[in-house]
TrEMBL record:
Belongs to the class I-like SAM-binding methyltransferase superfamily. RNA M5U methyltransferase family. Pfam families: tRNA_U5-meth_tr. It comes from the Bacteria. This is Class I SAM-dependent RNA methyltransferase.
Length: 430
């Protein structure tokens, strides 16, 4: 299986060939397409000998070619083993070979609380959904086994609303975050919102129970178009008011699994005064539970996120100090890292190469790295391997079920790069 969820074969001349919807061990007939840098893509024509792990996809849109999922046709246990192997391979490429990786913690389907829908107008019709696999076409969504049903239930009414919204000329997007106070909607459109549009949005929000609807031009900043009540979510019991479209962990269960793995990776007693740095802290998803273990300094570059985190921390009374800082341009130096007994970082998809290089040369007793991209994890982990650090825990977390994505929580500690300690197993469905 290739990293993107395509079956991987090899042409007679040695060229890698990626066959969408094919599975490891199968014999298939496929039509090779255009060559690309890493090989060629192929279209599945016929399955000659199916894998015993092939299952019927639970969602009808997968059969139609929806690109939101990649491996619905693969048995859940096989998906979990593949994602566990991806994390092990990423660490191995970095220089941490034969590291014990815990079984994948798999979160339930139907629990995704965040969706970024594409919008497309075609005459009187409005399409809302995800792009078709390998295409810019928007597949109109009527069901989804991955999303929380409350988000899917909003789509018919949203289609009706958008038919009359002049700001949507041809295309746009709709980000829905399911907060504790209801669905929070951010619309991005290729036209300007009119006064009539604002009235329509306010009426829609009132009818559908949306606390807030925000709007933004295609590449511009968001503004509140209709505010009907507070838009808040509790993170580890702390009420936070996120900005429209703010990043949330994909599901409550995924968030809980990441927190459990991070806390399990910390030593039972932190050295010194127990100070913890939370880098790329976002809204405080990890900062607030970490405050039960020590005094937390949370660093985040996004102004809206750090403002929400700071306000929530102030109301909570927890020992969390929020600091705005662009860690890609201004990573913490070795001197700044020295007071911390532990550093936790949850970087964006591209990783944290600049910060990791300095962490690897620091004297921090433990670094817990939360990864959402095995390629970035592998690249960043090389700095720790080169500096002689060990991996003491590695836990894959699948909160993007049926996709090719996998999260991982990795604990690094200074020392000889010998055989790492055993990884901690976490409760969860594997």
């Amino acid at each position: 299986m290739g990293a993107a969820g395509d079956g991987l074969s090899v042409l007679p001349d040695g060229t890698p060939c990626f066959v969408a919807r094919a599975l490891p061990g199968e014999s298939v007939r496929a039509l090779p397409g255009a060559r690309r840098r890493e090989g060629c893509a192929a279209t599945l024509v016929e399955i000659l000998e199916p894998s015993p792990d092939r299952v019927a996809p639970p969602c009808p849109h997968f059969v139609e070619g929806c690109g939101g999922c990649a491996v619905q046709h693969w048995a859940p246990d096989a998906q979990a083993a593949w994602k566990q192997a991806q994390v092990a391979e990423a660490l191995s490429r970095a220089g941490f070979r034969d590291v014990p990786v815990a079984p994948t913690v798999t979160t339930p389907a139907g629990r995704r609380r965040r969706a970024d829908f594409a919008l497309r107008r075609a005459g009187p019709a409005i399409r809302i959904g995800f792009h078709a696999a390998g295409s810019g076409e928007v597949l109109d969504l009527s069901a989804c086994t991955v999303l929380d049903p409350r988000i899917v239930a909003l789509l018919p009414a949203l289609r009706g609303l958008l038919r009359g919204v002049r700001a949507l000329r041809r295309e746009g997007s709709a980000v829905v975050n399911l907060l504790d106070t209801g669905p929070d909607l951010l619309l991005r459109t290729d036209g300007t919102l009119t006064a009539e549009d604002r009235v329509a949005l306010a009426g829609f929000g009132e009818r559908q129970g949306l606390p807030r609807i925000a709007w933004a031009p295609k590449d511009g900043a968001a503004e509140a178009a209709a505010q009907l009540g507070p838009a808040t979510i509790a993170l580890s019991g702390v009420e936070v008011a996120p900005a429209p479209g703010a990043f949330l962990q994909a599901s409550p269960e995924g968030e809980a699994a990441i927190i459990a793995a991070v806390l399990a990776a910390l030593p039972a007693k932190l050295s010194g005064r127990g100070r913890i740095a939370d880098l790329h802290a976002g809204l405080g998803t990890l900062s607030f539970p970490l405050a039960a273990r020590g005094r937390v300094t949370a660093f985040e570059g996004d102004a809206a996120a750090i403002a929400a985190l700071s306000a929530a921390a102030g109301r909570s009374g927890l020992s969390v100090t929020a600091t705005r800082r662009d860690l890609a341009r201004q990573p913490l130096t070795a001197t700044e890292l020295a007071p911390f007994a532990a550093v936790v970082l949850d970087p964006p998809f591209a990783g944290a190469a600049e910060q990791v290089a300095l962490l690897a040369r620091s004297q921090v007793p433990v670094v817990v790295y939360v990864s959402c991209n095995p390629a970035a994890l592998s690249r960043d982990a090389r700095a720790f391997a080169a500096a002689g650090w060990r991996v003491t825990a590695a836990t894959p977390i699948d909160q993007f079920v049926h996709s090719a994505q996998v999260e991982a929580v990795i604990a690094f500690t200074p020392g000889r790069a010998a055989s790492p300690g055993p990884s901690r197993r976490l409760p969860g469905r594997t």
